[in-house]
Write a sequence for this structure.
């Protein structure tokens, strides 16, 4: 049950939601029951927080009730973004306009999720990660700290495209610390990109990428190593 609040125009609040005095609110924001908001959080126009779980009739995703959404201090949920119950948004993180973060996903401190990007169920995004516009991070993927994901990247997690039994385990991507994924790249299920690995724009990655390897092409193949002058530590 949602109730109207006079704290901001069109604001709807669920049961048990407490709004810190430091909260910054746009218009027509919806905050569902139990959502926990830190100090200095910004909720822009039309954001929906703590949305209840809704699954298709043939979905194999867990159907138990997720925990309340948690939004850390100083985080920003931008205009039209939807963040489901059971997610966790870390301190200082930004969830961009019209982005979607599913249940049991987490976005780490100071990370940014670009406009229209989907962070699927049970995804873990580390700290200081940048996932740019229009990406799909498949369920059960892990994105470690300081990873860069360029616009239009697609990961996947189902080797059989649903033609499997209900006991099949989905295999998301594993993007190791400070790896980089170029624009429009496609990663097949279960792919690991090693620490400081670099996937070139438009590559289709069908096998694991070693640490510090640069791969490109369809299918992606190693062309060189990442030089010392390119390592993340030189830019921090």
């Amino acid at each position: 049950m949602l109730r109207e609040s006079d704290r901001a125009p069109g604001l709807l609040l669920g049961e048990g939601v407490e709004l810190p005095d430091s909260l910054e609110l746009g218009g027509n924001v919806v905050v569902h029951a139990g959502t926990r908001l830190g100090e200095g959080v910004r909720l822009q126009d039309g954001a929906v927080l703590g949305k209840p779980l809704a699954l298709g009739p043939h979905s194999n995703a867990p159907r138990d009730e997720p925990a309340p959404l948690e939004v850390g201090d100083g985080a920003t949920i931008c205009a039209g973004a939807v963040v489901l119950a059971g997610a966790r948004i870390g301190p200082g993180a930004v969830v961009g306009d019209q982005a979607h973060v599913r249940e049991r996903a987490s976005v780490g401190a100071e990370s940014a999720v670009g406009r229209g990007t989907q962070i699927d169920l049970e995804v873990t995004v580390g700290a200081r990660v940048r996932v740019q516009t229009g990406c799909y991070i498949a369920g059960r993927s892990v994105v470690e700290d300081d990873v860069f994901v360029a616009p239009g990247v697609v990961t996947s997690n189902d080797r059989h495209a649903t033609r499997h039994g209900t006991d099949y385990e989905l295999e998301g991507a594993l993007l190791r610390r400070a790896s980089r994924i170029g624009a429009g790249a496609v990663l097949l299920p279960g792919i690991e990109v090693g620490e400081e690995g670099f996937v070139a724009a438009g590559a289709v990655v069908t096998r694991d990428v070693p640490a510090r390897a640069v791969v490109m092409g369809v299918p992606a193949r190693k062309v060189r190593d990442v030089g010392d002058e390119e390592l993340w530590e030189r830019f921090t």
The CA atoms of residues 141 and 172 lie 4 Å apart. The chain has no helices and 30 strands. The chain has a mean pLDDT of 96.
